[in-house]
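Hi everyone, sorry if this is the wrong subforum. Our group has a chain we'd like a structural model of before ordering constructs, and none of us has done structure prediction before. Sequence below.
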Amino acid sequence: MDTTLLESQSHILVIDDNPSIHEDFRKILGLNEVANPALEAAELSLFGAPAEPMRRACFAIDSAYQGSEGLALVQRAEAAGRPYALAFVDVRMPPGWDGIETVQRIWSAHPDLQVVICTAYSDYSWDEMMGRLGRSDSLVILRKPFDNIEVLQLAHALSKKWLLARQVRGQMEELNRVVAERTLELQTTNAKLRSEVAERTQAETALRLLEERFSKAFRASPIPMAIQTLAAGRYVDVNESFLRMTGLTLEAVIGRDPAATPGGFLDMAWLSLVQAMQHRRSIRNFEGCFRDQAGNLHATLVFAEVFDLGVEPHVLVIVQDVTERIKLEQQLRQSQKMEAVGQLASGIAHDFNNILTVIQGHAALVLLRDQLDREVAESAREISAASERAAALTRKLLTFCRREMTRPQVVHLNQSLTGLGNMLRRLIGEHILIQYALAPELPPVFGDPSNLEQVILNLVVNARDAMPGGGSITITTAALTLAHADLSRHPQARHGLHVCLDIADTGCGMPPAVLERIFEPFYTTKEAGKGTGLGLSTVYGIVKQHGGWIEVVSEPGKGSRFRVFLPATDKAAPSLPPDLLAPVPVATGGRILLVEDEAAVRKMAAKILRASGYEVLEAADGGEAVRVWERNPAGVDLLLTDVIMPGGVSGWELAKELTHRKPELKVLYTSGYNAEAAGYGMANQPNFEFLEKPYQPPALIQAVVRCLQAEPAPA
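Answer:
Right subforum, don't worry. Here is the predicted structure as tokens:
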């Protein structure tokens, strides 16, 4: 028990204006070493104490003679930690506060103090005191004159009551403190639990959102994906892309393993993939071959990741179909091969044109001699004609390798078809019949004759390949005026007068899937090595370049029909080429610097020019040409140069250097390529002409005369 409370239990305050009253209370309640037999007997009868001599309990008594003095003592005792347990207060204490007011003031600050009001019957009635103090269980009335035993009894009872009240309040405070601590702990624990619940709820929400995102990504992914059990390899789920790739339904896949599913990965490489997954290793870029339900093979790259789903390990399998990519790579290699062939053909055509220039030139010189033997003249004409055919062949080679520019002119399709007749019969063979239905008075078209002939050849060859067992090809031409109602057949169709080239065959025909892709570059239905896939795409490009369009009708087993529409033209027909025996134009004279790396071509050109009265300075390359220029201070009137030459200096660079020294210098370029293919920005240069090899002597002299007589371009 708290010793401070025990000490305070015996701490009593007496407030009375009569000193003798204070002395009486000390005698009754204070320390008394010699026992009073009468008091001992009274205590024995009241408290049941043993009837043996003992030291009697006593109270510490403080005195106050006025109410204000008593209040001050109560406050000091409380501040010192030794509060009073009991106060005996007289009712009448003149002057100042009476006992009732004193108790009011003390209780307003210390309501637990036990109070004994000492009063006589003539002081205040009980109702009056209760009316002022209020009813309280801490108040007792003691009548004057009071009995000693009664005082002692009140002192013991009320101090014990005060002690018990203080103990109860302390225990209540301790209980409240413990309750507050426990409440705080519970609140903290509850807050922690709420936080953990919130975190768990948040984690569950995040997990649910993650699962939803994964599910949406899994379902909507354009890449085929599947989830399989690791142990048995059975499909748990697959996405739509997987079903499209396999051609299966969801019911036919779920619950089965790849071996029991139609198609699937059946090659031996798949077994090594399964073994790797059994060891829970991630798989990256695994090359496999997949067969769908229709039997089509797909080249694939497989990615696999092992993860736990529930209590069982599963595998996420991602299958990337690279079949189209491999096809594109093959097409790229084919394109690179064709580019290499084109470069080879271009080089051959260029060198061949130099040779043909020499042949044609010398044949023409022979034909220009007087009194020429008839047989010699006939041989020279045959040589010249053969060189012309060879020149046409080189132009076809240049067209093949994209180094032949378009030469648009008025073209009569009926004449082109007639001219190609023998070639077409040789191309298609004797097992195929070719028939013509050419419209009379067919209007001409404006285009490149070689390109349009290429369209005819490609379409006829395509028809021939569709009839390996024989059949017939019908070629029809017609003039059609298209109205606005006819334009719905094709988005590129335009109204007006058109020429229609119709090529129909009785071959195998094409299904709709093939028909949709026939004009795609590199697309072919032929076996590997038997087609490049460029024939019909070339036709499409040429026709579109000429402002026309193509319509195709085909059904399996019913043949194919290609209708090419080209806009008609009202331009005049081209003039006839000059006669090889036409007289050489009259030369105007002048000094010509001839630069040609081919010695035979240079020698022939110099001979033709000198025979026409020109002074010729010769050089084999650009460096030698500059040195020749510097040795002739009289200057040069015309630079006749090949475009492509060895030694690091091209004809274009040479012309640029010499025209810088002499701005009025005229330039005549010549090349085995055409001007567009030779390039080098010549079109932006003034005072120049271009002569394509091979050329005849009249053409050379005409070009020289034209170039020298041309008015100088403004600076």
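For your construct planning: Residues 51-55, 574-584 have pLDDT under 50 and may be disordered. The chain has five domains: 3-171, 221-321, 330-400, 413-567, 591-709.
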